[in-house]
Amino acid sequence: xxxxxxxxxxxxxxxxxxxxxxxxxxxxxxxxxxxxxxxxxxxxxxxxxxxxxxxxxxxxxxxxxxxxxxxxxxxxxxxxxxxxxxxxxxxxxxxxxxxxxxxxxxxxxxxxxxxxxxxxxxxxxxxxxxxxxxxxx
Length: 137
Hints:
By secondary structure, the protein is α/β, with parallel strands linked by helices. It has a single domain, classed as Rossmann fold (3-Layer(aba) Sandwich). 45% of the residues lie in helices and 18% in strands. The radius of gyration is 14 Å and the shape is globular.
């Protein structure tokens, strides 16, 4: 079941936030749909893919500012995808955000430094917390 979406439409309507291109890669279709819809409503350009391999292709084609990667995708883990993105594009762009319902935040914070992730979001995610994180990038 997709989480409820609580948004601050006033922020998007006012033009006060920077419009980001954000790629969401997760094998859970509900997560991809709810995240890309949340991003669209907030004025960002969101694109969703359902596998690690598709994420790598989409990064090359879409040139996102931010990539939100599920850590536990079946074909390529988020860790593998993050390492390939960092090796190809460097460590600073796109910003990599890990999202997971399986792993625990303490472990991911430590391993994120070696995997290239700057932030960790646990599932189920809080839409408002995610939006605040994106505003501060």
